[in-house]
Amino acid sequence: MQYIFEVHLRPGYRAEQYAEAWVRASRLIQRAPGAQGTRLHRKIGDPSKLLAIATWASKQARDAMEETQAQNIADIIESQAEFADIHLIGEFDAPEWEVLPPQ
């Protein structure tokens, strides 16, 4: 499943600063069973908006990580609260199949 959220950086805070915290938290989160990677993207033309995507084996695996989240992960996330607003876009199931155009 994909856990997708948008990050709005407050004026004066750069994407690179947020990314540093994102990497620290992601390294810890990716140790959880079912974690399958994270990605962080900047919006073209507006570097104050980021798209974050975390991939999990299942919603249950992600929820279990949230329930047992270590305090150091919570501290990293909380450290960004004054600099960024985070909005959940949604939780999306992985498709059973996908069609890609030929290259």
Task: Please characterize this protein's 3D structure.
The chain has one domain (2-92): Alpha-Beta Plaits, CATH 3.30.70.100. The chain has 3 helices and 4 strands. It is an alpha+beta fold and 103 residues long. The longest helix has 15 residues, at 15-29. Strand 2 (35-43) and strand 3 (46-56) form a beta hairpin. Helix 1 runs antiparallel to helix 3 (71-79).
The H/E string reads EHEEHHE
The computed structural class is alpha+beta
Q: Return the domain count.
A: 1
- Number of DSSP-assigned strands: 4
Q: Residue ranges: pLDDT <50 for 5 or more in a row?
A: none
Instruction: State the shape.
Output: globular
Kindly report how far apart the N and C termini lie.
26 Å
Biggest beta-sheet profile = 4 strands, antiparallel
Mean pLDDT: 93
User: What's the architecture in CATH terms?
Assistant: 2-Layer Sandwich
Question: What labels would you give this structure?
Answer:
four-stranded antiparallel β-sheet, globular, 103 residues, Alpha-Beta Plaits, single chain, 3 helices
